[in-house]
Design a protein that fits this description.
The chain contains 1 helix and 12 strands. The chain has about 210 residues and is mainly beta.
């Protein structure tokens, strides 16, 4: 049975380079340096529907009161597990009906974070905060090499789909400023889709 390559829709996949994101400048104490590690396809996992957010889906995070500490700070206000697919050809496959799928990553690329927000914020600061408070596996981007062969059976009369990507996180975040002794003002907020170093194949089936 031949294997058919399925092209990804350019508008339906999140893989936005941070360099292309426009954001308002943040204060100097909000600009940490974010590491951008890489991951080899030969070192990734085969487990479907796994999570590297280290939390249950749709979890709200309790925020502390700040009577002391920094004048401004970032906080992750909610988080959930989210699969971040790769966007380039050679990482998405469809085959069937029935049989067995034998696939691999045939073209290298980069899975990157998407951070959006309003008012005053920094992409690097949001990623750094998520890495510190959600999962140490989070990063701004991860380079994927070729390889990572994978085999999965397809039920009879069904079509199998395999998509390579990162077992990442979807979060909401806020940028706060201390007012007076214990007052707090929100000076920025938004959402982010963040990849992790945990990557692999996601499998599902359709009837056509």
């Amino acid at each position: 049975m031949s294997l058919l390559r399925k092209k990804l829709a350019g508008t339906g996949v999140v893989a936005v380079l941070l360099a292309g994101m426009a954001s308002a400048p943040a204060l100097a104490d909000d600009e940490p340096t974010v590491d951008v590690p890489t991951v080899s396809a030969d070192e990734t996992t085969d487990i479907n529907d796994r999570s590297d957010c280290e939390d249950e889906p749709e979890s709200a995070i309790k925020q502390p009161n700040y009577c002391d500490g920094p004048y401004t700070w970032y906080a992750i206000t909610s988080k959930k597990n989210y699969f971040v697919p790769s966007w380039w050809n050679g990482t998405s496959w469809k085959d069937g009906p029935g049989g067995t799928m034998n696939v691999s990553v045939t073209k290298s690329g980069t899975i990157s974070a998407e951070v959006t927000g309003s008012l005053e914020w920094s992409s690097n600061a949001v990623i750094a905060k998520a890495k510190a408070s959600v999962s140490v596996k989070i990063g701004g981007s991860f380079s994927i090499s070729t390889g990572h062969q994978y085999t999965h059976p397809v039920h009879s009369n069904k079509y199998g789909h395999l998509q390579y990507g990162s077992w990442g996180c979807k979060v909401t975040w806020a940028h706060y400023q201390r007012v007076g002794s214990c007052g707090v003002k929100t000076i920025g907020s938004g959402k982010a889709i963040l990849p992790t170093s945990g990557t692999g194949w996601k499998y599902w089936e359709t009837s056509s």
